[in-house]
Design a protein that fits this description.
This protein is mainly α. It has one domain (about 1-45). About 85% of the residues lie in helices and about 0% in strands. It is built from two helices and no strands. The longest helix has 28 residues, at about 15-45. The chain is rod-shaped, with a radius of gyration of 15 Å. The termini are far apart.
């Protein structure tokens, strides 16, 4: 959903790169959280 919305904003909006970057923030936060959880799980016994 977020990737499709960012792509549509990039293609159809006159300042699409700003809208796409803003939309990507909402996808990056959960992905960063999941990555940090995996790193933490790998460190703990």
């Amino acid at each position: 959903g977020v990737v499709a919305g960012a792509f549509v904003a990039l293609v159809f909006n006159d300042s699409g790169i700003v809208a796409a970057a803003t939309a990507t923030i909402f996808a990056a936060s959960p992905l960063l959280y999941l990555a940090l959880e995996e790193v933490q799980a790998g460190i703990e016994p």
